Write a sequence for this structure.
């Protein structure tokens, strides 16, 4: 693809590095931005600079946050004794959109995957264990994708927590095996979180 300007080419290269955006789509977006008001484009770019420089992570659940605590953890109406364990912020957002869950979260930051060289020490397992040992936690809900990696992580966490005396449950398998939770419709996901069941070997 030939470009009339190195500036355009550089912008296309940057945009096409994003997932799901090819070079043609990137070029279309760049040409669209050139038609917009200069101030609007500057605000667009500045929003990403602010994102990188000012974003922080919740000290409780590790969600993306604008403050020390995210809105969920800072909400006094949330049930702090129930922790829903999720892989990442996308799954947390999907569950929140169902408006069926009233507890708090723990974001692992990944799943155990020996094939990819990801072990328990590479995700926030110990942080979860410390939280359970030091706080009045009554129930842990496993809300991980129904994939081999998700089930491996579920089982590992269960083995670590089964003697803790707390209730351990897993979201109901109303979701097809192999599905990613972030792509599950809100009704199915809401039903799954509401009809969770005890986790067992």
């Amino acid at each position: 693809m030939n470009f009339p300007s190195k500036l355009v080419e550089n912008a296309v290269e940057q945009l096409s590095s994003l997932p799901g955006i090819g070079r043609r789509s990137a070029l279309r977006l760049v040409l669209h931005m050139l038609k917009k008001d200069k101030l609007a484009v500057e605000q667009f770019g500045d929003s990403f600079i602010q994102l990188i420089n000012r974003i922080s992570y919740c000290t409780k659940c590790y969600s993306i946050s604008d403050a020390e605590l995210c809105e969920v953890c800072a909400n006094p109406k949330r049930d702090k004794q129930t922790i829903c364990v999720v892989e990442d912020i996308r799954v947390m957002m999907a569950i929140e959109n169902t408006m069926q869950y009233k507890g708090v979260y723990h974001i692992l930051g990944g799943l155990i995957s020996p094939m990819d060289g990801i072990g328990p020490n590479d995700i926030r397992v110990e942080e979860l264990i410390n939280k359970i040992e030091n706080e009045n936690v009554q129930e842990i809900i496993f809300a991980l994708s129904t994939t081999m990696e998700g089930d491996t992580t579920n089982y590992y966490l269960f083995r670590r927590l089964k003697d803790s005396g707390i209730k351990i449950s897993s979201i109901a398998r109303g979701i097809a095996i192999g599905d990613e939770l972030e792509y599950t419709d809100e009704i199915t996901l809401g039903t799954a979180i509401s009809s969770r069941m005890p986790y067992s070997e």
User: Anything to note?
Assistant: The domain at 67-198 is CATH 3.40.1360.10 (Dna Topoisomerase Vi A Subunit; Chain: A, domain 2). The chain has a mean pLDDT of 90.
